[in-house]
Design brief:
The structure holds two protein chains of two kinds. Chain A is mostly helical. Chain A is 78% helix and 0% strand. Chain A has eight helices and no strands. Chain A starts with a helix and ends with a helix. Chain B is α+β, with helices and mostly antiparallel strands. Chain B has two domains: 181 residues, no CATH class; 78 residues, no CATH class. In chain B, a hairpin with a 5-residue loop joins strand 7 and strand 8. In chain B, helix 1 runs antiparallel to helix 2 and helix 6 runs antiparallel to helix 7. The longest helix of chain B has 39 residues. In chain B, 42% of the residues are buried. The chains are: A mainly alpha, B alpha+beta. At the A-B interface, helix 1, helix 2, helix 4, helix 5 and helix 6 of A face strand 1, helix 6 and helix 7 of B.
């Protein structure tokens, strides 16, 4: 019981579980039609257009054992101050782009490519900054993910551009 | 407030701290060893609100060099010969090395663990070297794959290797320590609450813990909810959108976990140091 409590008290696990729970509730609300009455639930359910909130909730739960493995892999690694500063800049830029897009200050078609590019940079930065990740299977997966996400975003953006009038 | 710490107290605490870290590192008897470290008088004076951090050395060249150094020590040779007589004459299966530091980066000591395996008997052994600026402890831990909850702990003392204790861990976490003379000590498992180490600057320690929790939780939420929008590309996978989206979301979560952990450990240390200095 105490082990379970300790596990739940871990902020990373707690964040993953609440993330899954929120999207699961939004998915249920959309399924039962409650989201029409609650704008917040409608926003959460449509957070990633075209992707069901249940998929997001399921993926967040599936990520929990991977989080534990990643923690074990990087245990004892010294914090990297440059990566910490770069992460703050990247995350601030991504948040700014999303906010500016939602208030209509920047074109909506630029939002996903910019945030996607920042995500790819973050993936590559993780690879460079963490020796444990770099020298393990997780490094290969992170590198592959950066290539796939970058390529897919470029493809989606180019296709969208061609279709634009 | 000026605090005088005697050399004996310092040695006892540093030795206990290294042993605690060794126990955690070996993963065999963390509770008992940590209790010994805390039981050592003057822990709070030395710790000053700091916590022990185990920084694992992952570089192969570093680990190999440190293993060679451990075996080259007189105590290392004695422990290695003892392990050979116990059936561990073969090669080293793996080497794990770590530095033990306080949270303010002050080095406490180093730990190197060399793992040996006897395939015929299904037994394992660690040759462990723990060193601090003034102190060195070399020993061995033996256990069998069939009974991983029981291990024999040996120490090199005055040029001889002697059995220090036999440790048995119960399913509830209780550890029974049996000395060679038959004396038995039972160490009960501690809750997370009890595991907190008191110190002179305890508020600063709690500041780091609370800040890390809050920062990691909030950072994770912001990072995931912003970056997950990137996964819109998965719609190009058509009917397999749930596979593409699932993989993308898991990647977002993993990269946010690492980045937030790294960022919060930096920012909380800086933030709590500022509070501590302001309060001083």
């Amino acid at each position: 019981m105490s082990e379970l409590l300790n596990w739940l008290a871990d902020p990373e696990m707690a964040a993953a579980i609440t993330f899954a729970a929120v999207f699961a509730i939004a998915g249920l609300a959309r399924w039962r039609g409650y989201d029409k009455k609650v704008p917040l639930l409608r926003t959460i359910a449509g957070w990633v257009p075209g992707v069901s909130p249940f998929v997001i909730a399921g993926a967040a739960l599936a990520a929990i054992p991977l989080i534990a493995m990643l923690k074990q892999l990087t245990a004892g690694e010294a914090p990297n101050p440059i990566a910490a500063a770069a992460f703050l800049v990247i995350l601030s830029a991504a948040v700014a782009v999303r906010i500016l897009t939602h208030v209509g200050a920047t074109p909506a078609r630029l939002e996903v490519p910019i945030v996607g590019a920042l995500f790819v940079i973050l993936l590559l930065m993780t690879l460079v900054a963490s020796p444990a990740i770099r020298s393990s299977l997780a490094g290969i997966l992170f590198g592959s993910a950066a290539l796939i996400v970058g390529g897919a975003l470029a493809y989606v953006y180019a296709r969208g551009m061609r279709r634009a009038p | 407030m000026a605090t005088t710490v005697s050399r004996r107290t310092a040695l006892r605490v540093i030795g206990g701290a290294a042993a605690a870290a060794g126990g955690v590192f070996a993963g065999l008897f963390p509770e008992g060893q940590i209790l010994h470290a805390e039981a050592a008088g003057g822990y709070g004076e030395i710790a000053q609100g700091r916590q022990l951090v185990l920084r694992q050395r992952t570089g192969e060249a570093t680990r190999n060099a440190r293993a060679a150094q451990a075996l080259a020590r007189p105590g290392g040779g004695i422990a290695r010969r003892f392990l050979a007589t116990q059936g561990f004459g073969g090669k080293i299966e793996s080497i794990e090395s770590a530095d033990v530091l306080w949270t303010d980066e002050e080095l406490v000591g180093t730990i190197d663990a060399l793992l040996f395996y006897d395939a015929r008997k299904g037994k394992y052994a660690y040759l462990i070297r723990q060193s601090s600026k003034t102190h060195e402890v070399i020993g061995a831990i033996l256990w069998s794959a069939a009974q991983p909850e029981t291990c024999d702990v040996y120490d090199v003392l005055d040029g001889r290797i002697v059995l220090s204790a036999t440790l048995t861990k119960s399913p509830d976490g209780t550890i029974t320590v049996r000395a060679p003379d038959g004396r038995t000590d039972v160490v009960r498992p501690r809750s997370a609450q009890q595991a907190r180490v008191p110190g002179l600057a305890a508020p600063s320690m709690y500041c780091t813990q609370v800040c890390t929790w809050e920062c990691t939780f909030i950072c994770n939420w912001v990072c995931k909810s912003v970056l997950v929008a990137t996964c819109i590309w998965s719609t190009i996978c058509g009917p397999l959108v749930f596979i593409c989206a699932g993989a993308c979301i898991v990647t977002v979560i993993a990269v946010c976990e690492w980045s937030c952990g790294n960022y919060c450990s930096q920012s909380c240390r800086l933030w709590c140091d500022v509070i501590q200095e302001s309060a001083a």
